[in-house]
Write a structure and sequence with these properties.
With 469 residues, this protein is an alpha/beta fold. It is built from 16 helices and 16 strands. The chain has helices at 7-13, 28-37, 52-62, 78-85, 99-112, 139-149, 162-181, 208-216, 224-230, 244-254, 287-298, 316-320, 333-346, 373-376, 389-392, 397-415; strands spanning 16-23, 41-48, 67-70, 91-97, 120-127, 130-136, 190-194, 199-203, 234-238, 258-262, 303-307, 325-328, 350-356, 359-365, 424-429, 434-439.
């Protein structure tokens, strides 16, 4: 991408990010995406630092050029570090955790920091399926927010925060890149989201308190009941790249025990800015085996079934027949249409997503209950009419945003909780962190699932873009 290559990437490489969190689990996604994006120096403080060594090793293996270290003293004055470095835009600070943790951290900043050397600060609060994010570029704005969040303490089970922290990690990384490169619009208003009810809202300052209260309330049941329902679920991810990586990682952490991976490609260095399951040490290895190595290290008990083969009309039915839910992690139209058609004929739910440059979309397709992919795009676009990711590029964390939502859709669909994206689509724009949820209708003229279908057997198309995201 021209915005990031060359001088832009140099700025990112020379940047420093301080990460403050209650525990390592909350920032797993954040650290990997910061590393993949090329942030040169990452310094971390954890209230509970269990398992940080494994995370740091994975981050360094993903990007050999980064420096990542544990901070032993909380809230060293980054402003003074910034002043000494002589570059006021190269240092950014992120706080990610519960409201109690964020309130405590903000109070310490306000009490101890020199307001004349204020560091751009991103706050990301989480409580189960909900969360908030806001970026601050002045001491005064942070001070005003501190008054709003005061005494909103949540005592939650951190294992309930799987999807909100996965999403927040990618969104924080996007904000870091925007700050460093001076692109897009920083999210100085509050971003409120509830993944379970599919609410994504920008909140003006006057209503901040209302939505902070919404996040803080203990609205949802403990995740353990959901974990029981999805334990035996078998999920197939077609594509182990930019979309497949965050989906697989979030599903592993969600409690699903069997994940299938389809990909016939090998790991290349160009993949590592967005494909967080892979690493420099596994360049040249098949993507499915590389992904399996990573996932088994995180959870040795997970059952990973690898399909190191091209997904074709000859093997499509056989591959998907053994799985309950299918996830589309592809970045080429021929295989996407083939997967859509195969899922329709086999009556398999499919969680669909796509990304390009700074944008992404996501929808859930349930055969005979709602729309299919061809309802939105009846015919495959002619080659060259829509640029591929290879041609236009993709901002590395954007597939992470879509992947986090895809993983949540799998769990919601399988457990029967919340609202899914059946007959809906999410559009995401990274430059202003804008989410739009729109209603869809089944197309009665769809050639596959309409009233008079013309497609009755699997078809295979040829296209010279066959890489995963």
């Amino acid at each position: 991408m021209p915005e990031i290559s060359g001088p832009g990437q140099k700025k990112i490489t020379e940047s420093t990010v301080y990460v403050y969190a209650e525990n390592v689990k909350d920032v797993f996604s954040l650290i990997l995406y910061l590393s993949a994006s090329g942030v040169g120096r990452i310094f971390c403080y954890f209230d509970n630092k269990d398992d940080y060594e494994m995370l740091f090793h994975d981050a360094e293996d993903l990007n050999n050029d980064i420096v990542i270290k544990l901070k032993n003293k909380k809230l060293v004055n980054e402003g003074e570090h910034l002043k000494n470095a002589g570059n006021y835009e190269s240092v950014i600070r992120i706080f990610l955790g519960s409201f109690e943790f964020i309130e405590k951290s903000i109070t310490t900043v306000i009490d101890n920091e020199n307001k004349n050397t204020f560091v751009s600060t991103i706050l990301a609060g989480t409580n189960k399926w909900r969360g908030i994010l806001q970026t601050f570029d002045s001491f005064g704005a942070l001070n005003e927010f501190a008054e709003k969040i005061s005494n909103k303490k949540v005592f939650e089970n951190i294992n309930d925060n799987i999807f909100s922290t996965s999403l927040l990690g990618t969104l924080c990384t996007i904000e870091v890149i925007k700050i460093v490169l001076g692109i897009g619009e920083l999210h100085k208003d509050l971003l409120y989201f509830d993944i379970l009810s599919l609410e994504f809202l920008k909140i003006e300052f006057a209503k901040t308190n209302l939505y902070l209260n919404k996040v803080a309330e203990n609205k949802y049941d403990d995740y353990s009941s959901i974990r029981e329902k999805i334990h035996d679920l078998k999920v197939l991810i077609v594509g182990a790249g930019g979309l497949g990586s965050p989906v697989a990682l979030a599903l592993l952490k969600s409690g699903i025990q069997t994940i299938g991976l389809v990909d016939y490609d090998t790991v290349e260095i160009s993949n590592l800015n967005r494909q967080i399951l892979h690493s420099t040490s596994r360049i040249g290895q098949s993507k499915v085996e590389s992904a399996k190595t990573f996932l088994k290290k995180v959870n040795p008990h997970i059952n990973i079934i690898t399909h190191n083969e091209k997904f074709t009309k000859e093997n499509a039915m056989d591959i998907i027949s053994n799985y309950d839910i299918i996830v589309d992690g592809l970045d080429n139209f021929p295989t996407r249409y083939l997967l859509n058609d195969a899922c329709f004929f086999m009556k398999k739910p499919m969680i669909e997503a796509g990304v390009l440059r700074f944008t992404g979309l996501n929808t859930t397709i349930i055969p005979e209950e709602g729309h299919c992919y061809r309802c939105m795009m009846p015919e495959m676009p002619e080659q060259g009419s829509i640029p591929s990711c290879e041609e236009s590029g993709v901002l590395g964390p954007v597939p992470g945003v879509m992947g986090a939502i895809q993983a949540a859709e799998v769990v919601k669909l399988a457990s029967g909780v919340g609202d899914t994206l059946k007959d809906k689509i999410i559009y995401f724009e990274a430059l202003d962190l804008n989410f739009s949820v729109l209603n869809l209708e089944k197309n009665i003229n769809c050639p596959l699932c309409g009233n008079n279908p013309t497609i009755n057997i699997l078809q295979e198309y040829e296209y010279n873009c066959d890489s995963t995201t």
